[in-house]
Amino acid sequence: MQALHTAATGMAAQELNVQVISNNIANLRTTGFKKQTAAFQDLIYEHVRRVGAQASDQGTIVPVGVDIGGGVKTVGTPRSMTQGTLSQTGNDLDLAISGEGFFKILMPDGTYQYTRDGTFQMDNQGRVVTAQGNPVQPTITIPQNASGITVNEQGQVSVTLPGSPTSSVIGTINVTRFINKAGLQPVGSNQFTETPSSGPPQDGTANTEGFGKVTQGSLEQANVDVVSEMSDLIAAQRAYEMNAKVISAADQMMQSTTALFR
Where is the Flagellar basal-body/hook protein C-terminal domain (predicted)? Predict the structure, then answer.
């Protein structure tokens, strides 16, 4: 019976939906996390009686066809890149981007990855690095004994050196944007890589046309709405249960049909 297969595709789709929702909820407190949603499409139809076909020799046309659907399929888990709220931390090297853009990170193999997580620190060379020790680009090195680290909205990093009454700019942290930021590939550790879908990276100065501004002493929170996620979770659970009920009903119908031949 086709209903068994159709309902099974519905159960599989809702199982994936729950997995996506659970990942969103799990990352509720992950800095710079961007939530995902599951997108579905209906499967190919069996056209028992095609709409618009000729119904008689007199040329009458079928106004309504008989189409039996094959179920549902997952077509993607698109990621919402909307802005998360900024939370103040007061740490000099905690940075957040308000608007478009990502921080550019140099990986050990020479490639680049991109992140909205501005939880930066200094390594043993004084470089500004991620929690994994990978340097932010362009590389910023804080001189030894420097104090009063400030980062303005354009990403310019200034410090006060011993014996100097004024601060000095030692570098600029650029931001990178993409034509289709939702097309970036997540690789874990709050980082993404470019793909053919995202388009090439466009490096630029923060707080200029098309690029977001940098906010020091703040971090961007996940853009997950826990109330919405819980509502979606309940809806997915009920949809799964209804598909399971269809399988049970189809099984009972098959049992009844089988009993007629006994």
Answer: 216-259
